[in-house]
Amino acid sequence: MILVFSDAALNARFVGGLQALLDVGPVGCRIQLFAASTPSGPVLAELVLARPSGAMVGLQYVLQQADPEGDLILREGTPQSGRMINGAGVRVCDGDVSGIDGDGVFRVEGDDGPLLHAGGRARLLASYFF
Fold this sequence. Notes:
- There is one protein chain.
- The chain is mostly beta strands.
- It has one domain.
- Helices cover 13% and strands 41% of the residues.
- It has one helix at 7-23; strands spanning 30-34, 43-57, 60-65, 71-72, 81-85, 91-98, 106-109, 121-126, 128-129.
- A nine-stranded mixed β-sheet has the order 4-8-7-6-5-1-2-3-9, covered by helices on one side.
- The two termini are 30 Å apart.
- The model has no long low-confidence stretch (mean pLDDT 88).
């Protein structure tokens, strides 16, 4: 006999594993933003995720920033790439960054759209898995 799991059971198992991966460690999961097309060079801003790091909305796991007002922007620039690091300091994934209308994995904005100004706040707009 072959076991066939329901989509709901598989999604629940996937979400549990994803949350465990992101939320492990003493600090919250974070997304570092870089001006380079690959995650390198100085960090423009670091977005800290809530705990738990997200929630299922329909069939998508939507990431949630800890501070709805955003996180401090360290350097001016337009982010092109991002790196997600879990609470234990392990790299989870890298992805493109865009504004709300773009197709980046991580969609962010500062006080001036996608351009981030040092001292301002960066907000995670729409970022989700599957």
